[in-house]
Write a structure and sequence with these properties.
The complex is a heterodimer of chains A (370) and B (226). Chain A is of the alpha+beta class and 370 residues long. Chain A is built from 15 helices and 12 strands. In chain A, strand 7 and strand 8 form a beta hairpin. In chain B, 35% of the residues lie in helices and 27% in strands. Chain B has one domain: Rossmann fold. Chain B has a 6-stranded mixed β-sheet. In chain B, strands 2-1-4 form a 3-stranded antiparallel β-sheet, covered by helices on one side. Chain B is an alpha/beta fold. In chain B, strand 1 and strand 2 form a beta hairpin. Classes of the chains: A alpha+beta (370), B alpha/beta (226). Chains A and B meet through helix 1, helix 11 and helix 15 of A and helix 2 and helix 3 of B.
Chain lengths: 370, 226
């Protein structure tokens, strides 16, 4: 395998061409890393919103998105009154507009919601939440980008609210969100007596199956899912994940075509040289491996640079106030390995035809080639 | 045929080669034997078939018919061709066919890489060959930075890297001035006489052909010994 040292020599000799290939893969890697990290981060944040101190989520059966889910007051009471249930917190999701910010996530919650007690209160306190119907409470990031502090008035949609408190939350969605007392949110969104989802904490987790069965048997319109089950079955998460991978793979296909083009040009411009290698004793397999080796090195360079670009972009997006803290990248080992694998496969696949072409070059014919 | 030389390394018998589906006949049933230590010139005008015969012997091209045996191997068989190129044959071209962006040493090393030679052994051989042809001071130079004669000497070193028994030289002096051509030819003659390598030299220059042990004239696709 000593002949593979020529891989590095060849890449060094054709720096510009190699760099173009590296750039193609690097942009694919960066795009895929950024998209997947943002999407999985967003899914993770949303999962954490739903699963705060709970075991089960109850929501409308067959709903396409939790924003459209309706759990009625009667259904909520029935859930709350189940013997297995220790706590049941109703939550209503909505999107509101605020000055210069047409879309801000709004959470309608009760004063007993555990996230209030867990928050790091920068102004006001959890004890004040829900005491006044004309008050909203803000995540720290939301207060920052909306440029308001406790006691200020804030235009939300067509109404004006007083800011009753500000608390910091580790979850990007919540930290960039507006919290309303549940009743206020129900009135504001015109969804009286309705919640989007009920987060249920059981006395004993082993009672889960019985609880789930009882809900299904007695309430045809709602469903209870374990947090893990919910993450796996929620169609919006599936769509997001699928879209992220699809967009990422498209980016890679472009990168792969770039590598194929680069390697093909590389082979065409070196036909005579490859013929010389054959004359000097290189087998067709060795010639093919040289081309694959060059493609693999281009992919490796692309992965390293792509990761550097991707991580930088994510860091900027997490830091930039324009993103309202909604970007909370989640980079997992499977995602990193998946990207590296896709990059390598794309580059090597792009080198199949050039390598095949190179390995079939006939020395006598190629040496006449001008 | 010269007497007193080594064993027959190249046997060509009734070889026919044509191009364009038989419309252009290049070699019309040629036969040739070359022994170890012989310096044989294939002398003829451009297009006479000299290079084609070298290509066939070197396994770079396949004959239409006829038999060939080189170092006991059949150059028309893929497996034998690879063995021949790796272990028994060295090739020198008119345009030297060196890789331009590489250094003299890197070019010389290529046959060693093909056979997975130990880098220390390769280095030793490079130094030995470079010294023999007066290229020791040029090893780190790039090909574009050396003269035509130095390039051809580099090509000869590359051809000799794996200790071949046969050197096929296709117009090696064709692109060189008279003095440099003489130097290169001198190297080839030394290889035959001192190293007992069979050297087959395709040339159109009579003065070089006449200095070889044997002159084989190539004309109209046929060989005749002068």
């Amino acid at each position: 395998m000593r002949f593979l040292s020529l891989v590095f020599t060849n890449l060094r000799r054709h720096r510009l061409r190699a760099l173009i290939g590296v750039a193609g893969i690097a942009f694919g890697v960066a795009a895929m890393l950024t998209i997947l990290a943002i999407v999985t981060g967003a899914i993770g944040m949303f999962q954490r919103i739903l699963s705060t101190d709970s075991h089960y989520l109850v929501f409308e059966r067959n709903v396409s998105d939790l924003f459209f889910s309706s759990v009625t007051r009667e259904q909520l009471d029935a859930v709350r009154n189940r013997p297995e249930v220790a706590e049941a917190h109703a939550m209503l999701f909505g999107i509101v507009s605020a000055p210069d910010h047409p879309m801000v996530t709004c959470f309608g919650i009760t004063a007993l919601d555990p996230r209030l007690a867990r928050g790091d209160w920068l102004a006001g306190s959890a004890a004040e939440f829900g005491k006044r119907g004309d008050e909203v409470f803000l995540g720290a990031r939301a207060a920052e980008f909306l440029k308001v502090a406790m006691g200020d008035d804030l235009e939300v949609g067509r109404e004006s609210f007083r800011v009753g408190g500000v608390f910091r939350n580790e979850n990007g969605f919540e930290d960039g969100g507006i919290f309303m007392p549940l009743a206020t949110a129900q009135r504001f969104f015109g969804r009286e007596e309705v919640a989007s989802v009920v987060a249920v904490k059981l006395h004993d987790e082993s009672m889960g199956a019985a609880f789930k069965q009882a809900i299904e048997a007695s309430h045809a319109g709602i469903i209870a899912l374990e947090n893990r089950e919910f993450s796996q079955s929620y169609s919006s998460f599936k769509i997001l994940n699928f879209t992220a991978w699809a967009v990422g793979i498209c980016a890679f296909l472009l990168g792969g075509l770039g590598v194929a083009n680069t390697m093909l040009l590389s082979v065409f411009s070196r036909i005579r040289e490859i013929a010389v290698l054959r004359v000097c004793g290189f087998s067709d397999r060795q010639v093919g491996m040289l081309i694959f080796g060059e493609a693999a090195m281009v992919a490796l360079g692309g992965v390293i640079i792509g990761f550097a670009i991707g991580f930088s972009v994510l860091a900027i997006m997490e830091w930039a106030p324009q993103f309202q803290g909604y970007v909370q990248a989640n980079i997992t080992a499977p995602v990193l390995l998946g990207i590296m694998g896709t990059a390598l496969v794309t580059a090597v696949a792009g080198a199949i035809y050039p390598a095949r072409y190179a390995s079939r070059i006939q020395p006598a014919e190629a040496l006449r080639y001008e | 045929m010269s007497e007193g030389r080594g064993s027959v390394l190249i046997k060509v018998k009734d070889v026919v080669k044509s191009y364009d589906h038989g419309r252009i006949a290049v070699l019309r049933g040629v036969s040739l034997d070359v022994r170890a230590g012989e310096l044989v010139s294939l002398w003829g005008a451009s297009g006479s078939g000299k290079s084609t015969l070298l290509h066939l012997v070197g396994g770079l091209d396949l004959p239409d018919s006829g038999k060939m045996e080189v170092c006991g191997l059949d150059p028309s068989r893929e497996r034998d061709r690879l063995t021949l190129r790796r272990a028994h044959l060295g090739y020198v071209f008119q345009l030297h066919n060196l890789i331009p962006d590489l250094t003299v040493e890197e070019n010389m090393r290529i046959p060693g890489l093909a056979v997975g030679q130990d880098p220390r052994e390769t280095r030793k051989r490079v130094e030995e060959l470079a010294e023999a042809v007066g290229m020791s001071e040029r090893l780190s130079h790039r090909i574009q930075d050396i003269s035509g004669g130095e390039r051809q000497r580099t090509a000869i070193c590359r051809a000799l890297m794996n200790h071949p028994r046969i050197l096929l030289a296709d117009e090696p002096t064709g692109s060189l001035d008279e003095q440099t051509g003489d130097t290169v030819f001198g190297l080839l003659r030394n290889l035959a006489e001192k190293e007992k390598i069979a050297v087959v030299l395709a040339t159109h220059e009579r003065r070089f052909a006449e200095q070889c042990h044997r002159i084989v004239r190539v004309r109209n696709g046929q060989l005749s010994e002068l």
